[in-house]
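Handout, section B. The chain below has 521 residues.
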Amino acid sequence: MEQRVLMLGTVTVLGLALLLGGATRAGFIGDVFLQLVSIPLLLAAIWLWLGEQTGPATRWRYLAGGLALAALLGQLLPLPAGLGAALSANPLGAAEAAGLQAPGLQSGWRTLSLTPHASWAAIMSLIVPAAIVASVARLEARARLQLCGVVLGLGALASLMGFLQVAQGPQSALRFFAFTNDTEAVGFFANRNHFAAQLYVTFVLAVAWLAACARDSLQPGAHRTRAVFWLAVAVALLVALTAGIAMARSRAGLLLFMAAVVAIAATITVNRREILAQPARGMRGAGAILVAAIGFAVVFAIQLGLYRMLVRFERDPLEDLRIPFGWTTLATIRESMPFGTGLGSFVPVYATVERAGDVFVGYANRAHDDLLEVLLETGLPGLLLLGVLLWWLGTRGLAIWRKPQPAVDTDHLLLQRAAFLAILLLLAHSLVDYPLRTGALAAVFAFCCGVLVEPGEGAGGVHSAVPGRRKAARTRPVGPAEQATTVRPEPCPVAARQQWVGGGDWPEAWRAGGGEREGLG
């Protein structure tokens, strides 16, 4: 029952996030709706986690969650003005800082955050990824693979949407945001870079599915099943995703996609025996299918969008506004330590400290470097929490890339390795953009983090994800007292059974030993 409820809630929240969470600005009704839908799932997951027996891993999990909650809510705690000024530096002038404070605060009081209302909104936006990671971490392996199917299906739908947007042109009714890239494919997003991020993450997860399909298609009798059909579907999905990345014309997306292809090729070369779980001959065949499918997808994408991609790379990188954004943000970070300016405060803070030579038509909505923006808004507490996240990702990455044990579910291991690579790609992308500031990609990132948690650490154990493969029967352990009083009767000898020609029931000792029936017809 627990697994069904969590699965239903997670499918709902994750699916809605991918469909509605593509905005790059705050205040959209879709984001508010997502947060409201996510609250029951988050509460249910927390309730189930609190019911678990307390162990070392659980205590560390509670400690990390408590520190994160304290760091977030601590920014909104009203403090006397003198104490607040002593705890945090102010990179702005006194008048500007006073103008940003909440009007409801009494005179002489202030919060660590310069923009309390924006901080509340930023904290509420974290409900969606928090609910997803808490629920996915408790799901068993089969449910996680089904959730991966949801991500793949919506990624294919987004790619199709991108094709239609390019075909219909800038005035396409399928562009759902007023401020968007009107000449490129954007899918369900407002920004082509974030659309490309969804596609390269979906591509990595699709390669894991392709590997499983390639392995199954080489099994004896596979031609009598649907294995070959699903293999063809997986190859078609890879081609569609690669073409979608080309149509998005995102420089960061294209470079990270190429990095993903290189990483996947290296993985196939080094760990194909462990990943594909095949004997030498079948392993070579499955590896060849993987390489051929990826190569075909890349060549097809180059033929489709090479000219459009080259045009994007003609621009001088030194003219990119990300460079002045980064330098100004870095200079402001030093003045805002140790607690930062507050979550959601980047826009008003940057507008105050922006250099005259960097002014342009419009305004800077993000630093286009999430590391710098997190440091500016949260200071040392944010740096500490980021370090904890990276440490956990490093330990989990080492664990899943070690040589797997024979009992490990191969399909789930493939999903974990693909999720780890997707996390690395999104973190790298965050150094030059802000993909995780969208509800959709934050949800996908949370899903991948939840997958890295071993299913045995939650409610369920590792259940096979391959249809038709049954779980081993569970037996009740026998206590010492039962072992002392239980007497196993002597089994019925085969020779005696063959000599028994009398009528009526078998002797009691023979029926008790009926587990051994060699020679009986």
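Note. The CA atoms of residues 301 and 505 lie 75 Å apart. Compare this with the example in section A.
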